[in-house]
Amino acid sequence: MKRRDFLTAAAALLSLEALAAPQKKNQKSTSKNTKSTGKKPAAGKSKKTRGSPAKKTSTRPAAYTAPPSADNSVIDNPPAGSSATRLPPVRAAEAPLQWKSFEIVTTLSLKANAPCRLWLPLPLDQDALYQRVQSHQWQSNSPNLMLSRLPDGQLEVLYSEWTGKEDIQFRMTSRVSTADRHFDITRRSMAPEREDILRRALQASDKIPNDGAVRQLGERIIGRVKDPVAQAKEIYDWIGENCRYDASLPGCGSGDIQQQLGNARYGGRSADINGLFVALCRSIGIPARTVPGLRIGPSRLLQSLGIDNQDATHAQHVRAEFYVPGYAWIPVDPSDVCRAIARSHLSNQDSRLSALKRVLFGVWEMNWIAFNHGSDLQLPGESTPQAFFAHPRVLLNQQAVDSLNPLNTPYTITARSI
């Protein structure tokens, strides 16, 4: 007999035995009862056992579970059996062994007899396992200079102003150490994030919505996937396949997700693409946030993902991260996937692109420094909030200088490894 026929016959035999087993048991029970009483049970009647009431079938409908959203998030109702509930053992976080140090110098020098104001984003001043600020030093003839910080890393900024009676001289030197950041799914975070920080990472901002069209898109992307890490991966992959990096836009883009949803044309620059990732995560109940920063060195992954020389004047770049209970914040950068396709001319069949997609979900190559976690930020002395804060802001005679135009930028930023 052939192997295939044997397996088919064996399966049929087991099925027949399984079906016959209850019947044999019932026959045996009936025979026993008949023997003990000497009477056959009446047809159509069932014998009741004293003290054993008939079982009632519950008709109560199953409890309704609301679909995930910003109001019904993974931190409130983690899906059963997912990475948010089936957690690995707690393991203490280990500090990286390999750190790199960089020196970032920002210089502003103008011969102008007009009032001037400067807002300069500073490296995130929170010791983490991927970034540590060593020092800040500055020289300036400004009569009014101050550092301003909001709690929880929402804002780190140096504010300076000149009256117009003197030439404008400013030089800021920051030293920062970085280590490559990796997400390890086998390692559980020892301390959960604070509730207020997670709630803030679920809220809508002026440019990043969390309901309506973006929620419909998010639900369509994740489909029936229930695990929050896998849901974020579905969103990440969708962005890599459907968003276009547009190098013609100034700076990091506008970060206006409403505009992308309105015309169904997805993409832009880093604030637009990674902002869309954040909006989609928030819409399905996963806390997420953008992280503006600055590229400060060459990339080991692709040349287009770093700076080739020490000029970092226009090297601002916005990244993203999301949070799942039991883990720390998980780093991602779908924008750099789109950037690699556009600038390195990688096709979807290129093995380098496949490898890059795997790496940039859960890894930040730290040839980049983070500035802050805030959105809709109110800068000192300003009335109009900023959607995100990555570029130095200069006002000359109460007029904003177009610093995103390379021909008109009034400052220079250099970065070097030390």
Write a short abstract of this structure.
The protein is of the alpha+beta class and 418 residues long.
Verbal overview:
The protein is an alpha+beta fold. It has 2 domains: 100-177 and 376-417, Immunoglobulin-like; 185-370, C8orf32 fold (Roll). The chain has 8 helices and 17 strands. The chain has helices spanning 3-37, 195-200, 213-222, 228-242, 257-263, 270-283, 334-343, 351-359, and strands at 100-110, 116-121, 131-140, 144-150, 155-162, 168-178, 181-182, 244-245, 267-268, 288-295, 316-323, 329-332, 363-364, 368-370, 393-396, 399-400, 411-417. A 5-stranded antiparallel β-sheet has the order 4-5-2-15-16, with no helix packed on it. Strands 3-6-1-17 form a 4-stranded antiparallel β-sheet, with no helix packed on it. It is globular, with a radius of gyration of 31 Å. Residues 1-49 have low confidence and may be disordered.
Integer-rounded radius of gyration: 31 Å
CATH class of the largest domain: Alpha Beta
Helix content: 25-40%
C-alpha termini separation: 75 Å
**Tally of alpha and pi helices:** 8
Which terms summarize this structure?
alpha+beta, Immunoglobulin-like, 2 domains, 418 residues, 8 helices
Helices and strands in order:
Blueprint: H1 3-37, E1 100-110, E2 116-121, E3 131-140, E4 144-150, E5 155-162, E6 168-178, E7 181-182, H2 195-200, H3 213-222, H4 228-242, E8 244-245, H5 257-263, E9 267-268, H6 270-283, E10 288-295, E11 316-323, E12 329-332, H7 334-343, H8 351-359, E13 363-364, E14 368-370, E15 393-396, E16 399-400, E17 411-417
Parallel strand pairs: 8-9
Antiparallel strand pairs: 1-6, 1-17, 2-5, 2-15, 3-6, 4-5, 7-13, 10-11, 10-14, 11-12, 15-16
